[in-house]
Amino acid sequence: MGRSPPGRLRSQRRDGLAASEAQEARGTKVADAVNAASTTAHGRDRVLIAADKFKGSLTAVAVAEHVTAGLRRVVPELSVEALPVADGGDGTVAAAVAGGFERREVRVTGPVGAEVTAAYALRGDTAVVEMAEASGLQLLPDGVFAPLTATTYGSGELLRAALDAGARTIVFGVGGSATTDGGAGMLAALGARFLDADAEPVAPGGGPLRDLVTADLSGLDPRFADVDLVLASDVDNPLTGPKGAPAVYGPQKGASPEDVETLDAALAHFATVLEKAVGPQAATHAKAPGAGAAGGIGYGALVGLNASFRPGIEVMLDVLGFAPALERATLVITGEGSLDEQTLHGKAPAGVAAAARAAGVEVIAVCGRLALPAEALGAAGIRRAYALTDIEPDVQRCISDAGPILESLAARIAEDYVS
After folding, report:
1. Which residues contact residue 3 at a Cβ distance below 8 angstroms, ignoring those fewer than 6 apart?
2. Pairwise CA distance, residues 386 & 269, whole Å
3. Is the pLDDT higher at 368 or at 30?
4. Which residue from 33, 77, 328, 398 puts its CA 20 to 30 A from 7's CA?
5. Which residues are CB-neighbours of 242 under 8 A, at least 6 positions away?
6. Which one of the record's GO molecular function terms can you name (predicted)?
7. Distance CA 213, CA 198 (A)
8. How far is CA 74 from the centre of its chain?
9. Domains of the chain by residue range
């Protein structure tokens, strides 16, 4: 394929379910069955399943699989199309693979220095890179946090692997990070130099950035000048301050109140040193939406890699080919593990619902837990939500037995909405 036009993402997809690494073989079989039924069914309704993962229970691929099974329990010949989605956080690569991208694996530096296997997705010269694959919370050993020292170095290595594979358009999904280093590790992996008063490289992590004296970005990989890098995230926080990365997300990564203060000051200092190195745009980018995404890796991408910021779900819907799939649908089923206030601010179900409402297609949601009133759902374009807790009040059972319960929930949807 030729190179994508600058500033545009190409919308391409292949129908059907694939799978994440652990489910790939089974997911492919499901895809074949779903697609075969989609082309032979003659019913009035055509259902598009465009749901995110149920975090801690089911991948987005598995959600689609179980919803399909539940619908077909009631309407065996129902036409169903599955398009697992993600908003840029963990699960983004799996959604791209399910949408027809090729899964690629590479060994990179994990958040605490140990080598890990990370994956990205590639189709033609478009890559989907998920920073959580290299620098995510799930990679911390035995859940031991490292708020001051966790590094994004491996995310830079993952981006370089995508470049080496020929990518010229890169969707960089950021979320689920173990890190708060402002993207310094990522930039160092790509050729930047961050030195202390002794002209030695500063140690990994956000905390040591307080010792930064000199920043040199001249050695950054020159290929980024010709790459359309899209920063895809569901958060629009700035780098520092009361709504910045350390204050809002640091505690989720094990940061104490003292750690939050240290990290906020270190990242502010990082931005000041970069301003001396590259000019006033470094200060501007620090306040930009998305700068605080994934511990500030958004800032590193904006100031060092000339990235552009877009809400993650919008980018992924473009990449996965949601618009043509929506044209074929008479009902959309979306969802995620918890439908709550955060859902309304850039999460996948809200993005799916907004696009479907604009096209005049009705939307139903499934979830593990529902914490939104009907009025809020309606304002978001979701007619009704079905929660696992409607069937099983025990939350722990909802988590451990999510698949079978979700199938029963989908059967209810079929009875209520499908002909």
Report:
1. 125, 168, 169
2. 47
3. 368
4. 328
5. none
6. glycerate kinase activity
7. 9
8. 33
9. 21-83+321-417, 92-313
Q: Report the CATH fold assignment for 21-83+321-417.
A: Rossmann fold (3.40.50)
pTM: 0.86
Residue where the block lists tokens 């100031």: 303
* Pair of tokens at residue 302: 């904006």
The CATH fold of domain 92-313: Glycerate kinase, domain 2 (3.90.1510)
- Give 42's pLDDT tier (boundaries 50, 70, 90): very low
The residue type of 320 is L
Above 60 in pLDDT, residue 398?
yes
Residues 6+ apart with CB under 8 A from 358: none
Q: Is 333 left (phi over 0), alpha (psi -120 to 50) or beta?
A: beta
- Alpha-carbon distances of 7 from 100, 166, 171, 397, rounded to whole Å: 22, 17, 11, 45
DSSP reduced 3-state for 228: strand
Tokens of 392: 């099983």
pLDDT in tens, 267-315: 999 999 999 999 999 999 999 999 999 999 999 999 999 999 999 999 9
